[in-house]
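Table 4 source record.
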Amino acid sequence: MIEFRHKYLAELIGTFCLVFAGTGAIVVDEQTSGVITHIGIALTFGFIVTAMIYAIGETSGAHINPAVTIAFWIAGRFEQKHVVPYVVAQCIGATLASVTVRFLIGTEATLGATLPANAWYQAFGLELILTAVLMFVILRVSSGSRETGIMAGAAIGITVALEAMFAGPLCGASMNPARSLGPALVSLTFDHLWIYLVATTIGAILAVGIDYLLKEKTEQKGV
């Protein structure tokens, strides 16, 4: 049986890899005048999420996202006593990744911090919906609180890339409080950070309710 300290470490490493690769791509793109391109950045986020699900899914469930951990707990799929350690590990991993990006790659684009392009309420609404869609997919393809299985990684990674591709220019398409917190802390960019902490968490919780309603309808029809 995997000890929980290994699970916490896996979440730290997984979130580190996510933020390092994703925000690193943003910084390199800024440095090279758009060589990676917006599409390339979106795909980087999608690919790294897919890779981490396959790499640590069996160890920790590959949440790599505080909103996902909280939503799994509310859905009754994850023990409450492990929520805080998971969230702390994820936030530490994201912060260490931003420190690494700063010293190895550069400080352009505020280390990939997520910021609204327009009004704050547009970013809030987008992040809420994007995270709800992502969490809905996670709930439907995961087993318990684990993002595992042949198709789970692909489905979740594609969702991340797709949402980042069309919404990234408007809100940053964070969908992940830790992904936004790490760059904000290291670059001292706290403008509108609350949007990416609150909207993403609410969106993930909303997905739990939608998933519950679908299950209830299915059970009533005996499907």
